[in-house]
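Before a colleague's protein record goes any further, I have to sign it off. I want your independent view on whether this chain really folds as the tokens say. The record follows directly below this note.
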Amino acid sequence: MAKITLKAGGKREKVSKEKAEATVQRWTSEAEGNQIVGIDISCLSWTLEAFNIIKPFLQEIASTVKYANLADIIASLMTEEGLAVIEGVVEVFQDSPIVDLDLSDNALGLRGMERINTLLTRAPLQRLYLANCGFSFESMVLLRQCVEANENAVGKSLKELVLDRNMMGTKGAKEVGEILSKCNLEYLSYLGCRIQEGTLFLAQGIENMAKNTEKPALIRLDIDDGNFGEDDPAYKPLADGLKRCSCLRHLDLTDAKLECEGLAHLVDALTAASVKLTHLGLGKYLTGTSPMYLEVKST
């Protein structure tokens, strides 16, 4: 018995009743004699009618699904219909042993976060991708509560967290900092979130994450447009955290306001950790005008 992932596939479009029925027929054939461990219905706009056609099949295989790619599945739908589809997804997979969950590029917002929270409260969730979901800081409050639920079950299991292109602001960065303190992540991506004044909270979260475990797991960290200097220098907690992260291989602080003092602390921290970087991105870190990228290849 092979372990397989079922994919909807096809061109990007609003799924018709006929295509949904054909998809179920194909999946039924592909599933025969195999164990379904993954489902990929991404980059297709699932109307409620179309989703309800595939829903019974998904319910049959949900108990073994570990990998769910649900990115960009409600594009072009009216809000209420899109949220109804998301509710259907949650109903199907809320008891699945999901390890990887990608809900990126869905216009979820706070109402969507309220609907997906049952997917975000159970281990063994390890990789969570929520890029470009229209989240505000209120959504991050709910995400923090999900991570902390059930005696920090998801906080203990989570390895990767991607929150790119959400406008959470300073308050949202504070909530994410609290989330980080509950985890031991291998990968954090926080790109395009306009953190600025919230940089300190994020840096403190990274510091606490590193201090709260005997062996920090951080391998990759991507944060852009941060303010690591000026009045409350966030480079200090960032450096204190990173000096414990000997596994770090990829660090990108593109367009960060780091300046010379912050850069010195960062270099000292990376040296203390004896990291072997394969990538270091420091766009605009000194002048604030001309991009500068430094690529370091390990030997």
